[in-house]
Design a protein that fits this description.
With 249 residues, the protein is of the alpha+beta class.
């Protein structure tokens, strides 16, 4: 009998007693928890975004270092000559249109695994921040368009009516390579569907989330707000002259 009584107590009385001690959350408690979670999310989301952007900037700097190394190999094979940001076609010289990217690709100086010879196939030729900011004309395309970087066209460019030799600038001609822009996150002109291959005071970078990452002619990385990039005033030996030109033509 005692055994049966104990079983009856456990089955019928204990669960009922236990349920009597349970209660749900009040509306005030639920609203308080929701408010706290909302505040934490509002604090954390901007921080996560900043960390992600910082990581993308680090990746962009790494890409630019790789490109600088490729440019150095090109210079070693071409009498220390810097690449030309852009080479316009010229029928008299039998010269096709080209760019610094094409010079690297045709020379086999890039090895990041891109397919084919197209600039857009190589991720190292573009900034992940710019691809994010202008995704509709880059990574959302099929196939994606990775190339966004531009080379300083004030430093070395061959115009349509200029001879190719006129754009053959050697590193030794730069007065202070550590102050002269070489390759930078590039510019997407309004209405265009791809980034240009060059940058200049009149073609400043954009779609960089405010900060532009670039590599100087001596290989070290620079970063600054776009609005602080020197405006070229054509005054020899000024800070802006060193930044954009850096040698006496």
């Amino acid at each position: 009998m005692a055994y049966l009584f104990a079983i009856s107590y456990l089955v019928f009385y204990f669960p009922a007693k236990q349920n009597q001690n349970l209660r749900g959350f009040t509306l005030i408690e639920l609203l308080t928890v929701i408010a706290v979670v909302g505040i934490l999310v509002a604090i954390l989301i901007p921080s996560v975004g900043k960390v992600r952007t910082s990581a993308l900037r680090t990746e962009s700097a790494s890409n630019l270092r790789q490109l600088y190394a490729a440019c150095g190999l090109y210079s070693n094979d071409n009498n220390s000559r810097l690449l030309n940001s852009f080479v316009a076609a010229n029928e008299e010289e039998g010269r096709p249109q080209g760019s610094w990217c094409l010079q690297l690709l045709e020379g086999g100086y890039l090895s990041d695994g891109g397919s084919g010879n197209g600039r857009q196939n190589y991720k190292v030729l573009g900034s992940p921040i710019q691809r994010r900011e202008a995704s509709e004309v880059t990574i959302d395309k099929n196939p994606p368009r990775y190339g966004t970087y531009g080379m300083n066209s004030v430093l070395a460019m061959v115009g349509k009516n200029a001879t190719f030799s006129s754009g053959q600038v050697s590193m030794s001609r730069l007065l202070t390579p550590g102050r002269t822009l070489y390759i930078s996150e590039g510019r997407l002109a309004p209405g265009n569907q791809w980034f240009g291959v060059s940058v200049a005071p009149w073609e400043l970078p954009n779609n960089t989330d405010g900060i532009v990452t670039f590599v100087y002619a001596d290989g070290h990385i620079g970063q600054m707000p776009i609005e602080e990039l020197p405006k070229f005033d054509w005054k020899k030996y000024s800070d802006s002259w060193y930044f954009w030109q850096g040698y006496v033509k």
